[in-house]
Amino acid sequence: MILYPVDQLYEEMAFIAFHFHWSRDELMALEHGERRRWCEEISSINRRFNDRAPSLLDVV
After folding, report:
1. pTM of the predicted model as reported, rounded to 2 decimal places
2. Which side of the chain, N or C, has fewer Cβ within a 10 Å radius?
3. Is 30 buried (19+), middle (13-18) or exposed (0-12) by CB count in 10 A?
């Protein structure tokens, strides 16, 4: 039996909770694949947002 690394589990849960404000119980109810998929989707949204956001250098 292979166990999921605890550090990675906490990292994924913190990442999703930070962005979506889901509870611990909601996050623990997710299957590993679904939790990873949410992390990927959030990362994709962040990349698109950061590509469009003006940088501080544009303001000066």
Report:
1. 0.75
2. N
3. middle
